[in-house]
Amino acid sequence: MEQPNQTQRVRICDIADELGVSTATVSNVIHGKTKKISDETVGRVQELLEKRQYIPSMAGILLAQNDSRIIGVVINNHEKYEGHVLEDVFIASSLNFLSAEIEAAGYFMMVKTTTAITDIVRFASMWNLEGMVLIGFCEQDFNKLREAMHVPFVVYDGYFKTPGRICNLIVDNFDGGFQAGTYLKQLGHKKALCISDNGICMDLSRYQGFQKGFGAANTDFMQIPMAKTERRIFYGTHLETLKKYTAVFAVSDYYAVDLMQFLQEQEIRIPEDISIIGFDDTPICQQVVPALTSIKQDGAQRARLALKTLAQLKSGEAEGTTITLPVTLVKRKSVKTIE
């Protein structure tokens, strides 16, 4: 029998002809309707579908079904990432955990980056998504988004007064800052600085917790530029100010490591001259020298909760809620005791 041309799209009838079965049989295997088909025939059809590279065209069939098996992960491509959002250590780590959970649940992950939350509705409709995880949007209009579409979604670190029909998965940002401040105070530090590129949402909560743990009278806040080049110039201009502190709490590991590198280039020793604590406990913490003390949030636990909650939202078993995950201080070598 003549084999189908591999440069052309393989059709169901091509598979059926080659195996000597009906097109209905092939179609039923593709759609998972195999109760009345022998295991041997199902195996033969599936094997040839893969061999003839029919699998890519199966995506269209999945999209046309009520259950596409696709979970969309939408990430805010904020200007601070300077076009490299997927390279950010926290974002990359979150995607890694989500990918593992989505695959384990038998779904496919589709990632989209955008700067406009309004793009999400079109994205969900275009791909017939079964659910979504939204990361990095510090917005007040999630409820408008909820009303605009019926696809269930969960939010990482959303900030809104009431969750309504939205599930918001946050970490205890205030307690994370509190643990960092308390730890530095216990080690004898008298004056500490918190750095962030903004003073709202989760970063504000982390700073407020830090103030509570260390003492508001002895903590200062420094808003740093988002762009790396501008930030380096800023640090150079404020170098003498930085030297006045024995400890710095950065609201992310990225900013903590970035500051460490700048200070070390100025021959300022970590932690002998300045102690530094980050937030997130991403893998980079153990790759820098000295290893970075950080506030750990459990990315694997949040990913598991995201998938579990999406399933509950879809089945109607759950309504919108805010779930706060605990954080813990991980002590490493970037902090010293003040004698």
Automatic annotation (TrEMBL):
Extent of the signal sequence: none
Keywords per UniProt: DNA-binding, Transcription, Transcription regulation
Molecular function GO labels: DNA-binding transcription factor activity; transcription cis-regulatory region binding
Pfam families: LacI (PF00356), Peripla_BP_3 (PF13377)
Ribonucleoprotein as UniProt keyword: no
InterPro entries: HTH_LacI (IPR000843), LacI/GalR-like_sensor (IPR046335), Lambda_DNA-bd_dom_sf (IPR010982), Peripla_BP_I (IPR028082)
PROSITE patterns the record matches: HTH_LACI_2 (PS50932)
Domain HTH lacI-type: 10-65
Protein name (Swiss-Prot/TrEMBL): LacI family DNA-binding transcriptional regulator
